[in-house]
Amino acid sequence: MKIQSCRTSFIWFRLLRRTYPWITLVITGCKIIYSGGIQQDREKVRFMLAMTRIDFVRVYQFLNDLLW
After folding, report:
1. How high is the pLDDT of residue 1?
2. What is the DSSP string of 6-68?
3. Alpha carbon distances (Å) from 11 to 1, 8, 16, 21
4. What average pLDDT does range 33-60 have in this prediction?
């Protein structure tokens, strides 16, 4: 039972690590829409920082593989 739990935790950790910037973009996008003033400016900065963490070259390679 313990080995299965360890494997499951490792899989969830890898999934979270790979999707972290995308999750941040979704949450921050919602916060930008519903906040105002200085808080909205802070969320915009956080959104731009999350955009820099995403490796778009790998995303484009993946999309190219799907198309061809």
Report:
1. 47
2. HHHHHHHHHHHHHHHHHHHHHHHHHHHHH--THHHHHHHHHHHHHHHHS-HHHHHHHHHHHH-
3. 16, 5, 9, 17
4. 86
**Exposure pattern of 41-51 as b/e (b: 16+ CB <10 Å)?**
eebeebbeebe
Closest CA to 55 of 30, 14, 21: 21
Helices 2-34, 38-53: axis angle to 10 degrees equals: 130
pLDDT tens for each residue of 52-62: 887 778 778 87
Token couple for 58? 């790998």
Length of the chain: 68
DSSP state of 3: H
